[in-house]
Amino acid sequence: MNRIAFAIVVAFALLALSTALPPSDEMLREAEKSLFTPDEISIGLQRSWQSRLLMWGSQATHLVLLLVLVFTPLGRRLVDRLEQWTGRRWLLTVLLAGLAFFLADAITSFPWQLARWQWNLSWDLSNQTLLPWLRDYAVGQGILAVVEGVLLVGWFALIRWLPRAWWLIGAAMATMFGVVSAFLLPLVIAPLFNTFTPLRDTEWAKLEPRIRKLLNEAKVPINDIFVVDASKQSNHSNAYFTGFGSSRRIVLYDTLLKDHPADEIESILAHELGHWLHDHIAKGLLLGGIASAVGLYLLRRILLLSLHRGPLDLMAQHDPASLFLFMMLVWIGSWIAMPIQNAVSRHFERQADWSSLELAHDADAFIRAERRLAVRNKGNLTPSRWNVWLFASHPPAIERIRMAQMWQGNRRM
Hints:
This protein is mainly α and 413 residues long. It contains 15 helices and 4 strands. It has one domain (2-194, 278-412). It has helices at residues 2-18, 25-33, 38-71, 74-86, 90-122, 130-161, 166-189, 208-218, 254-259, 262-277, 280-306, 322-360, 363-376, 385-391, 397-412, and strands at 196-198, 226-228, 239-242, 249-253. The model has no long low-confidence stretch (mean pLDDT 91).
């Protein structure tokens, strides 16, 4: 088993090193053709490099914790001690093992989260002082603890009571959980961090007639476009489509409304309408359900192969000690699935971009908005193809600008 741990470490190190590949000369030339200055390109590359260092450091810390719990006797000893404390009460042991892992992971990852906050401050992208940031961080961790606790208990209960079919039922329940989470996110979770106000009740209410015209053209049944006070946290400009069913809504950052003229706001809003028209959230949930079924089936096979063979010496699939192996497999699986997930996301974004051009009929505004967003958010304007394939949930800015130019050229023909 030590060979497996060594292989995981080597694969992780090689993957991290591979993302340090510089952009090609072709990408640099393309960025300059898209009206980005050398300084803007340099800033994006520098910030992207620093971001990757923080990300890889955080991931390495998480990996070390998993390796210690899975490939040393510590994980087995911890669960045995917890079983003694609980009088071998299975459910309580599972919860305490999960809590122990959650706390250990939170403690070891906190310095990296704090460093990222300080890093964003240094780039003038964060507006939060320490106490407000700590408040948001604590609320986020509390929500994460509840969600992971529910999923943990549900997963172990299914394995214990339905040892053959738990993976299939688990996938169905995971899909249902995703639907409920998507429905509740804009109604319950997001308001814990920010205030959402209908556009008509803000200082940008004068945009309402123009936006209503766009909504009518798109034939999207939206009562209100919401504005979020994102400036209380950062200087990022953005907009997003969220929710499921009757909770669906489009949200504009107040920073976006402050920094962009009306035609660019309309173009960005049309992009979010494209997500609505293509039912991207529903499609994403469906694809997520299929991926859950495949992933849980593979997880079941690995757990069965691990019984009485690994350092954890699992007595059964529902042995609380299997939690640590489960966490490691989920972590590895997330890296394997990441390129596929991001490829789907980039496809959705291209569809939404095309809808924006078809609805707003203004490629020039689209290009100006894309350029302003990229510069304002200090994004990487020249990512390597490998990093795009691995990490990018959105197409690079120069690709989106190129598509708008192509659309514009076709319209003129």
